[in-house]
Design brief:
This protein has 319 residues and is α+β, with helices and mostly antiparallel strands. The protein has 2 domains: 182 residues, Immunoglobulin-like (Sandwich), CATH 2.60.40.420; 92 residues, Cytochrome c-like domain (Cytochrome Bc1 Complex, Chain D, domain 2), CATH 1.10.760.10. The chain has 7 helices and 12 strands. Bound molecules: dinuclear copper ion.
């Protein structure tokens, strides 16, 4: 967060230069053609103006070659824009394996953040430089949007859905966080900061927490809400076992196969009858209204922990 006028925010993530190159290309192309068209319009208006001896326009045939040329050039240019933009969009959409999982819940009018070791913060997000971070965004009320200009990324937080976004900060510093979707009276004050630290400082900052981790909180809820009596190992298994399930595919009663991801687990908690697993009865009650978004995220973290990824320790991701 530096003072003084600057045309662009700092470039503080691996995406930032890439987005700026694309933006520069779009601006260059549109500026060039705007200029060209203005020059031609004005130039031809003068050249072919009405004057004595030339009162009426002359009819001319346009050459086929010219037609093809001015169709081909814009087509190629917009294709380049499309392919370039789509590639960047895909890169921004798919978090790398091993990215650090951080949960973010938006509500009127604050951002609530929880780190994997349980540390919570509000309107602030501490991360380590050089380490890929995956945010899972939920909203407790209306649509918000998590926007970090210095990272050139933005993602909506939508009630009833999960959205993910990821980034890899490149340099320590403090950067603006904005809510970029009008969400009510104090939308403009729904701001915060992203603190990027050296890895070693970040570990220090994370350490010494006595708060429950999301996994621990989820495990506790699993017992409190009595999920365990049906889903637990050693129960009579009227419900699908949850061990080693997350990240796999689940066979449904209607013949479909669905990936077991955050959205699927969330739906199964709130609307258990939406997708019935093959071989099971629709006996589970809905927990809609009984759990908060944060509790659902904790339950998901717990179910996720029952299916550990090959590399449990998030590693630095090189791009
Ligand atoms: Cu939240 Cu605007």
């Amino acid at each position: 967060m530096q003072s003084g006028f600057r045309l662009f925010p700092e470039q503080a993530s691996t995406f930032a230069p890439q987005v700026d190159y694309l933006y520069g290309f779009l601006i260059a192309v549109t500026t060039f053609f705007t200029g060209l068209i203005v020059v031609l319009v004005v130039g031809f208006a003068i050249k072919y103006r009405r004057r004595p001896g030339r009162e009426e326009a002359e009819h001319t045939e346009t050459g086929m070659g010219l037609e093809l040329l001015w169709t081909a050039i814009p087509s190629v240019l917009v294709l380049v824009m499309f392919v370039w933009g789509a590639a960047l969009f895909l890169a921004e959409s798919v978090p790398p394996k091993g990215a650090q999982d951080i949960y973010v819940v938006g509500r009127q009018w604050m951002w609530k953040v929880q780190h994997p070791n349980g540390r919570r913060e509000i309107n602030e997000l501490h991360v380590a430089a050089g380490r890929a971070v995956k945010l899972t965004l939920a909203s407790q009320d209306v649509v918000h949007s998590f926007y970090i200009p210095a990272f050139r990324i933005k993602q909506d937080a939508i009630p009833g859905q999960y959205r993910t976004m990821w980034f890899q900060p490149t340099q320590p510093g403090e950067y603006h966080l904005f809510c970029a979707e009008y969400c009510g009276t104090d939308h403009s004050r729904m701001i915060g900061r992203i603190v990027v630290m050296e890895d070693i400082d970040y570990q220090k900052w994370l350490g010494g927490v006595t708060e429950q981790t999301p996994v621990e909180e989820g495990r506790e809820l699993f017992v409190q809400l009595d999920c365990i009596s049906c889903h637990g190992t050693g129960s009579r298994q009227r419900c699908p076992p949850l061990g080693n399930l997350f990240g796999k595919q689940e066979q449904l009663e209607n013949g479909q196969t669905v990936p077991v991801d955050e959205a699927y687990v969330r739906e199964s908690i709130l609307e258990p009858k939406a997708k019935i697993v093959r071989g099971y009865e629709p006996v589970m009650p809905s927990f809609n209204g009984q759990v908060t978004e944060e509790q659902i995220l904790a339950l998901i973290a717990y179910i996720k922990s029952l299916a550990p990824e090959p590399s449990e320790q998030p590693e630095k991701v090189q791009r």
